[in-house]
Amino acid sequence: KMAAAAGAAAAAAGLWSEVNRCGQNGDFARALKSVNKILQINKDDVTALQCKVVCLIQNGNFKEALGIINTHTKVLTSDVIAFEKAYCEYRLNRIESALKTIQSASQQTDKLKELYGQVLYRLERYDDCLAAYRDLIRNSQDEYEEERKTNLSAVVAAQSTWEKVVPEDLGLREATYELCYNSACALIGQGKLNEAMKKLQKAEELCRQSLSEDSDVTEEDIEAELAIIHGQMAYIMQLQGRTEDALQLYNQIIKLKPTDVGLLAVIANNIITINKDQNVFDSKKKVKLTNAEGVEHKLSKKQLQAIEFNKALLAMYTNQADQCRKLSASLQSQSPEHLLPVLIQAAQLCREKQHAKAVGLLQDFADQHPANAAEIKLTMAQLKIAQGSVTKACMILRSIEELQHKPGMVSALVTMYSHEEDIDSAIEVFTQAIQWYQQYQARTNHGCCVFQPKSPVHLSLVREAANFKLKHGRKKEAISDLEELWKQNPKDVHTLAQLISAYSLVDPEKAKVLSKHLPSSDTMSLKVDVDALENSHGATYVRKKAGKLTGDNQQKEQGQGEVKKKKKKKKGKLPKNYDPKVTPDPERWLPMRERSYYRGRKKGKKKDQVGKGTQGSTTTGSSELDASRTASSPPTSPRPGSGAAVSATSNVIPPRHQKPAGAPATKKKQQQKKKKGAKGGW
C-alpha cells in the first residue's frame, strides 16, 4: 500500500509539473488533460478543481466551468472561486447573477473590483460604474492603467449619450485612438458634431499609426478596426443632413463584413431610418442584420428599443398590419408610458382608414398617462384636421392647459378659427391668453419675481389681438386694447399711430386730439445720410424719371401736344440674290412641291413620288399615279386649304386615298429583302 501511495504521489507530482509547464506556455487544452488525470487520483483536490475551471475558462468553455463550480460547492466555496464564478456568469450574459456573486464575496480583490465595474456598465448603472473605476485608478499601479482610463472615458460617453449628462473634464490625455473615440462619443451626446468629427479623424489617424507598426497586421485588419470609427463618422453625417455621404459610408462598412454584430445592427438600423418609407426592399434586407444572434448583449436598452420601433414602422410601410400591431403591442407592454408604440398603432389604424378608432386609442392613452397627454392631444388634433373637423381639432387643442397661453398655440387656434369664420372664438382665444399672462404677472410680482410687470409676450399678444379685431371690424374692442398698450408705454409712437388710425374710423374728433401727442417732424431725429441716399442707384433712377416728366409737362404747357415715341421697327433681312427690279414670286411662301410650276426631280424618274408634301394636299403629278381614274369619273370637290396648290387638276384624289400602281411588286421586293436579312437570326 505504501508503495502504491508513493507511486501515486510521484505520478501526481509529474502531472503537476506538466500542468505548470503547459500553463506557462498557454497550452491550456493539454494542461486540462493533466488536471483530469490528477482528479482521477483525488477527485476532491481543491487546487486541481480550481485549475480545471481556469483551463476551461481559458478555452472558452464557460458553461462547463460554471457547471463544475456549482457541482463542487462544498469544496469550491465562494471565498476560493468567487472571481471565476462571477466571470463565467458575466461571459454567459447572466449579469444580475454575476453582480450577486461579486457582492456576496467576503473579500473584494482587485480582480473582483475590475469585474464589478464591467458588470455595472452592462447594467447601465453609470454613476456607480464611474465611482468604481475612479477608485480603481486611484488605488492601482500596474500596466493596465491605460485600459482603466479607456473604460472610465467610455462610462462618461455613455452618460452623455443615454442620460444627457454634461460630462466632466477627466483630464485624460488622449494618446490612444480608443480615448479619442470615446471623447468623440461624449461630444455627440452634447450635440457638438463638428468637434466630434475632428476627434474621430484624430482617432482614425492614431489607429492607423498604432496598427501599422505591427508588421503582421494587414490593410484589411486595419480597415476592420477602423469600421467602428467610420460608423460613428457616418452617424454624424446623418445627423448633419448629409444622408447620401452617410449612406455611402454605411454600405462600405457592411461590405467589409465586420465580425461585430452590434456594429452591423446599428448601421443597418441607421440605413433603415434614412430609407424611411422609400426603398423598403433594401430595408427588409438590412433588418435581418438587426436579428443576428448576440445583438441584445452588445447594445444598450435604448439602442435595442430604437431598433424595435423601426421594425414596427417598417412593418407598417410594407403593409404588414398584423406584424406592426404585434411589435407595437410588445413595445407598449415593455414601456407602457412610452409614446411611440401607441403612435405607431394609431398610424396603422389611419392607414386602414379607421380614424375614429385611432383617435379613441390616443384618447385612452392620454387619460391613462396625463404626463404625456399634451403630445398625444396634438396628434389627435392633427388627425381631426386631416378629417376636415377643424372645430373639433380646436376643442382638443384648447384642452391642453399647459399650452393654451403659448404664442404658437394662440396663433394656430386663431388661424383655424378664422378659416372657419368663427371670429368670436378667435377673439376669445386672445382674451384667455392675455388674462393668463396678467394673472401670471400678478403671481410673480407678489413673490418678488425679477420679471417686469408686463412681459414682452403679453404686450405682443395684446397688439396682435388689436390688429385682428381691427381687421374684422371690432373697432371699439381694438381701441380698448390699443389704449392699454399706449398706457404701458406712452412714448410708443407706433401704438399711438395705430390708436389714431382706429379712432379716425369711429371718433374723428378724438383722433385729432390724440394726434397732438405725435412728435413734430423737427423733433424726430432721422439718422439718414442724405447725400448717400441721393447718390444711390434707386434715387438716380427716380431723378431721371422725374426730369423726363418735368420736360413733358413743359411741352404740354407750351401747347406742343403729346409726343409719343414710336418704336423703330427693324428692317427684315433680304435674301442675297434679291433683285429689286424683279417682282417677287407670289407662291414663294409655299413648299416647292406645292407650287404650280414644279415639275419634279430630273433624276430618279422611275421612283414613284407618292405621299410628298403636306398631309391632305395634292400635286400636279399625282394624276399619273391614279390607276382607278377613268375619263368618265366625275370631278371631286377640292379639299379645304388645297386651293393654292391645285391648278387645273382639282379633281385628283388625295394621296392618302389613292393606291399607287406597282405597289404589290414593291411589297414583294421588301419581303425578299427581309428574308435575306433574317439569316442572322434574332
What does this protein look like?
The chain has 31 helices and no strands. It is mostly helical and 682 residues long. Helix 13 runs antiparallel to helix 14 (261-275), helix 21 (373-386) packs antiparallel against helix 22 and helix 25 (456-471) packs antiparallel against helix 26 (475-488).
Secondary-structure arrangement, i.e. CATH architecture of the domain at 417-517: Alpha Horseshoe
The name of the CATH topology of the domain at 417-517 is Serine Threonine Protein Phosphatase 5, Tetratricopeptide repeat
Low-confidence stretches: 446-453, 618-682
Find the count of extended strands (DSSP E, 2+ residues).
0
Indicate the overall shape. extended
The class by helix and strand makeup works out as mainly alpha
The biggest beta sheet is recorded as:
none
Rounded mean pLDDT is 78
CATH class of the domain at 417-517: Mainly Alpha
User: What is the strand content?
Assistant: under 5%
Number of helical stretches of at least 4 residues = 31
